[in-house]
Design brief:
This protein has about 70 residues and is mostly helical. It has three helices and no strands.
Length: about 70
């Protein structure tokens, strides 16, 4: 989940108004997203019976729509 959170935060920095170095922000976002995808693929391969898609959707849901978190 940490990698997905980092990717979401990197994307937010990339798309933020007034970002200082757009190329560096984009590169950081892409690197974070690549790390997430690699981890998802590795986890799905290790967990027979679970598709990569299922793992990815579960991670995204947990990070983007956490249940029971206090505001």
């Amino acid at each position: 989940m940490t990698l997905e959170r980092q990717a979401v935060e990197a994307h937010a920095r990339y798309t933020a108004p007034g970002v200082d170095d757009l190329d560096a922000a984009r590169a950081a976002w892409l690197k974070a997203a690549e790390a997430v995808q690699a981890a998802i693929t590795e986890h799905a391969a290790a967990d027979e019976g679970t598709s990569r898609y299922e793992v990815e959707m579960a991670v995204k849901k947990a990070v983007r729509h956490p249940e029971g978190e206090a505001d």
